[in-house]
What we know:
The protein has helices at about 25-30, 65-75, 80-105, 110-130, 130-140, 145-165, 170-180, 200-215, 220-230, 250-255, 290-315, and strands at about 1-5, 10, 15, 20, 35-40, 45-50, 55-60, 60-65, 185-195, 240-245, 270, 275-285, 315-320. The chain is of the alpha+beta class.
Amino acid sequence: xxxxxxxxxxxxxxxxxxxKTYVWIRDVATIFGKQIEWDAQTNTADIVDELTKxxxxxxxxxxxxxxxxxxxxxxxxxxxxEEDLKNALNYEIENAVLLGEAAKNGFSIDDDIKAAAxxxxxxxxxxxxxxxxxxxxxxxxxxxxxxxxxxxxxxIKNLYDFLKAENPFTQTQLEQKYKEMSDxxxxxxxxxxxxxxxxxxxxxxxDLLNKIKKELKTPEMFNEVMSKYSEDTGTKDDPDGMTFGKxxxxxxxxxxxxxxxxxxxxxxxxxxxxYHIILVTDRTTKxxxxxxxxxxxxxxxxxxxxKLKVWMDASEITxx
Length: 320
């Protein structure tokens, strides 16, 4: 039978008693986006609050709408989008699968985990003082809920540590990963003279750059000229320069720093901040031993993602 709720026609398995039409409470709740929990022993139905509504189950473990919203708010700095919500649901499902694997390997929320989590909470409250409660509330968190999240993260970390120890990578695998990631381990050290073009005409900027180039006759003079003319107040008096890796500077500056000849003053380079005259003083690749743990972490991340797919395929996951 078709009935109307707030003017909208809906299909419902309603029934008639004494000439009156009745609609099942489960159908009414569904129409209004609610969820019903039925207790067969007492023949009672409870309309579930929107936040406590079950949105997924993993091997019988319930994930609520609140769990997803909290995760999305934490990961998006309290401003989640629809995409953030989808990612948060996947995150909660993966965590549930990982917690299940942790339990199989003997890791659970024991007294040590609870004590460690309580210590984290105490540090949080000490740091934020009287603002701690309002910060938690802004993420729909109570202190108890936050402690539970921390406890679960510690259990998963224990699982990771166990899996790493049980599945070590060979020296050959680590060295191969080091080669693959070589770009990530290159660092450059550079000094620059910044001339902003925000308060100057193009002609004024060009005149000033030409003046600097005339004074900057050798690399040995760079510090003196940099201190005199550079408009980057944070680095103009630093003779050591900046050391950085790829992905840390604006693209134009990075390209010059990783291609320009070491010890040679570069031609003026334009970025969003203005014009830079760059002197690269060093460029090196971090040695294998220094970044070995990073290579190991990357290999483990790939290995874990593969295992997680297997574990999820073997799990009973329902999304509502």
